[in-house]
Automatic annotation (TrEMBL):
Highest taxon in the source lineage: Bacteria
InterPro entries recorded: CarboxyPept-like_regulatory (IPR008969), Plug_dom_sf (IPR037066)
Annotated signal peptide: none
Any Pfam family: CarbopepD_reg_2
Organism in which the protein naturally occurs: Segatella sinensis
Protein name: Carboxypeptidase-like regulatory domain-containing protein
Length: 843
């Protein structure tokens, strides 16, 4: 018989949230059942029935009024909206299927975690246990960074997934999947074991293969800075099996930092190793949301495209970021020196501006027998900063150009054999200029220009053989590094130990031959991995004698998974590494108007030992996730970091004195869903302790620094019209050193709460506040309270009108203290004042 397919979605009429588990029955003209189904996690259903001219759809769900409607004249797919219904029942407990596990795949039902105030999928993921969305936008699962971010199984964005988490509407995602122990290259399936997980976003059926558009436009006024404020963004996306694209445009001067949305969270550090010697940035405030203190004007554009043709993927990505940030702060820096202290007070007012244009162009073939990837990335940055102080005016300009091309080819044959070829070539040019003019004419001026060029190449091959439970591999190749630094200084005579310094060219080059044997053994749930890189390095340095070094760096990793959901990993490593080539230079280089950095003229090696443990547990049926990371490291170095004062200058350098340091770190987190209030709770903690030594005024000083943080968060739907969150964090630091007056402790407490009240199905009120209790000295504390509010009104299904008020109490300043090596910085930062903005959001 001919068949008719009846499909559609069932949603809550008041909230348009998909209803899971609703019973859908199709009846024919005689009232007999022609077909039935239950809605899935996206509220969708599909039923095949025999042809009939009189069909009726009937829908029922506990807590909703029954629905019945003839469909003989209605085209599918249907959108069925159920009204809330009140029923008297006896002790019925309903547990939502919020999280499910299918082997190593954890599936989060987005609808059961979404709150009315959530706009993007990133907002929703912050409620999901086991998933940690950091302040900068990066994502961790069970304490480890993810290694891939997929949309419908496709890696469109690479590591720049902040564009997606801050852009894709929560209403377009049906499921967030965590792929544990994820191996992104199919050719390594069953061979390479990964500790990291990947994230995959599953779109709702209605959102697949169609253009998705959302955005907002907001405008208003501010009291500090005084004037107009705006915040706007536009997000466009389409996901098809053979083509996927995302384009977003954002602009604001309301304190939103857009840089993280163009950051590649999966990219390793550049092997060109160039870093700017000059720094004029103000100290950051780790406990305060940047939108409180960032006086900005930022614009961002990003477009990403992926085409699939048979087994080949072509991906192109272009990002542009432009910003202008103003800064204003008053600080007092106390330097702890033997038997004394030195205090420097500064009032800084300045501005930094920057432009960044980046691209990524990828060709990839990912098959079970063959893998090919070629990635070409150009990066162009312009940066300048100017800071005015009572005694001087400083200006820095720093253009930077970077190119990289990386190629990887893996061939698998006879199931057990792998051959890999890898080529990495990178080039970078970094120029920085420092120009300082003093108000006191007798001090003259400082002008310094550094032109830094570097080229890095790494060419290697690997053969791997899989023999039952043992995998053997051998990798070898050649690595080269060629760098030239040209430094110039005018306007001031610079001398060290009474001798004038000659500025000029510097070269730091090396060639490395390396081989890396590896043995990996897997037995049931136990895995042992032994890796032992061996390299022979030949260094040619214009500022030091040529030298040759042999380095051996073994690593042993043990992993045990005794039961499903429990994983324990212990890793030990011995490592010997050369001096940072950035520290080798003849001429003294200015970091700012008063800080001079002296280089070393020898190539030293540092010995490192590290032991770490990673423990994670999950019980999906209970919504319970927990992880603990412990690490201990030891370091032996033949040099000792040093600092001394010369008139108004601080000179940083190294002494030829052996030094030893050690550190310990513990990071833990536990989170659980609370289904009875459709919420969750989490507790986290951090402890760090570092023991090391420096030289102050030619005197070795041993010091110990500690940091701790413990906090938690709970979120709950107390009833259908009230949603609340509360977060608590207690954190502090201490610093102690023998031979100086440094013996200080600072303890701070932070509270944050939000309360959302749904007055009607269209009107919502939100109040949010931050309370800080910061210790300034032994007996002095500084309190700061910041309060925000929002009123949201739904003009329609896809348009919301919002009125936002920030910093209602108009708090103007924030005081805090931080510790560096042998110094304490007590700072007062100016905050953004009261702001009122009206926004219109569409989806």
């Amino acid at each position: 018989m001919a068949q008719t397919s009846v499909s559609g979605h069932v949603v809550n009429k008041a909230t348009e949230v998909p209803i899971v588990g609703a019973n859908v029955i199709i009846k024919n003209g005689n009232g007999k059942i022609a077909g039935f189904a239950s809605t899935n996690t996206e509220g969708a259903f599909s039923i095949d029935v025999a042809d009939s001219t009189k069909l009726t759809v009937n829908v029922s769900m506990l807590g909703f009024k029954k629905y019945s409607m003839p469909i003989n004249e209605i085209h599918t797919p249907l959108t069925i909206k159920l009204d809330d219904g009140n029923y008297s029942i006896k002790e019925v407990v309903v547990k939502a299927d919020r999280i499910r596990a299918n082997g190593d795949t954890i599936k989060y039902n987005v609808a059961t975690f979404t709150q009315k105030q959530d706009r993007t999928i990133g907002d929703v993921m912050k409620h999901m246990p086991g998933i940690d969305v950091k302040d900068n936008g990066s994502i961790e699962y069970q304490g480890l960074a993810i290694n891939k971010f997929y949309i419908e199984g496709n890696d469109l964005l690479g590591g720049k997934y902040g564009v997606a988490t801050n852009g894709i509407s929560a209403n377009d995602i049906g499921m967030v999947e965590v792929l544990e122990n994820h191996q992104p290259m199919q050719v390594l399936s069953g061979i390479g074991l990964s500790d990291q997980a990947a994230i995959n976003l599953k779109l709702k059926n209605k959102s697949k293969g169609t253009w998705l558009l959302n955005g907002q436009l907001a405008g208003g006024v501010s009291t500090q800075p005084k004037g107009m404020v705006w915040d706007g963004d536009l997000f466009l996306m389409k996901a098809q099996p053979s083509y996927q694209t995302i384009t977003t445009l954002k602009s604001n001067n309301a304190g939103k930092n857009l840089e993280s949305q163009t950051t590649d969270f999966l990219e390793n550090e550049r092997n060109t190793q160039l870093s700017d010697y000059v720094s004029l940035s103000l100290p950051s405030i780790s406990s305060l949301d940047p939108k409180r203190s960032l006086f900005n004007r930022s614009h961002m554009f990003s477009t990403s495209h992926m085409w699939k043709k048979k087994a080949v993927e072509y991906k192109g990505q272009i990002d542009y970021y432009n910003y202008r940030n103003k800064m204003s702060a008053a600080s007092e820096i106390t330097y702890f020196i033997p038997n004394s202290t030195k205090v420097i007070r500064e009032d800084r007012n300045g501005m930094e501006r920057g432009n960044q244009l980046t691209g990524s162009f990828v060709v990839e073939m990912n098959k079970k027998s063959y893998f090919f990837n070629n990635t070409f990335k150009p990066v162009l940055k312009w940066y300048d900063s100017s800071v005015g102080m009572s005694e001087n005016f400083q200006k820095v300009e720093s253009p930077n150009f970077y190119l990289s091309n990386k190629t990887k080819i893996i061939k698998r044959f006879a199931e057990k054999h792998l051959i890999t070829f890898y080529a990495d070539n990178e080039w970078e040019n970094l120029t920085s200029t420092l120009d300082v003019n003093f108000t006191n004419q007798t001090k003259g001026k400082i002008y310094q220009k550094n032109q830094d060029h570097a080229f890095f190449t790494n060419e290697k091959a690997q053969y791997a053989f899989n023999l039952s439970k043992v995998q053997l591999s051998l990798e070898g190749g050649i690595e080269g590094y060629f760098r030239k630094l040209d430094s110039k200084a005018d306007g001031v005579a610079v001398s060290v130990a009474g001798e004038p310094v000659q500025y000029g060219d510097l070269t730091t080059n090396y060639l490395k031959l390396f081989v890396t044997p590896q043995v990996e053994y897997t037995l049931s749930r136990f895995n042992v991995d032994l890796l032992c890189p061996i390299s022979y390095d030949s260094y040619h340095l214009s500022a030091a004698d040529d030298s040759e070094k042999l380095f051996v760096s073994p690593t042993l990793k043990l992993r045990w998974r005794p039961i499903q959901g429990l994983s324990m990993t212990v890793t030990g490593r011995l490592n010997e590494s050369p001096t940072d080539l950035h520290d080798i230079h003849e001429a003294p280089l200015y970091a700012d108007y008063r800080t001079i950095v002296l280089g070393v003229n020898k190539l030293y090696t540092t010995k490192n030992k590290r032991l770490s443990g990673n423990f994670s547990y999950r019980n999906v049926s209970e919504g319970l996730f927990a992880n603990l990371i412990l690490s201990k490291s030891w370091q032996d170095t033949p040099t000792l970091p040093a600092q001394r004062f010369s008139d108004d200058n601080i000179i940083s350098y190294y002494q030829d004195v052996a030094s030893f340091s050690q550190s310990f770190q513990a990071i833990g987190n536990i989170s659980k869903t609370l289904d009875f209030i459709r919420g969750g709770v989490s507790i986290n903690g951090i402890f760090r302790r570092n023991s090391s030594a420096v030289s102050s005024e030619e005197t070795p000083v041993h010091f110990v620094r500690t940091y701790y943080s413990i906090g938690g968060q709970v979120n709950a739907n107390l009833n259908k019209w009230l949603y609340m969150t509360y977060a608590f964090k207690a954190f502090g630091s201490s610093a102690f050193s023998k031979g100086t007056s440094l013996d200080n402790r600072r303890n701070n407490v932070q509270h944050r709460f939000t309360m959302d009240i749904s007055a009607t199905s269209k009107l919502m009120f939100e109040v949010a506040g931050d309370y800080f209790h910061n210790q300034q000295s032994e007996d002095t504390y500084k309190d700061c309270f910041l309060l925000d509010s929002k009123v949201k009104y739904a003009l329609g299904k896809k348009i919301d009108l919002q009125l936002l008020t920030s910093n209602i109490m108009n708090t103007r300043t924030y005081s805090y203290s931080i510790y560096d090596t042998l110094s304490r910085i007590e700072s007062v930062r100016y905050l953004r004042g009261r702001e009122i903005m009206l926004s219109i959001c569409f989806k």
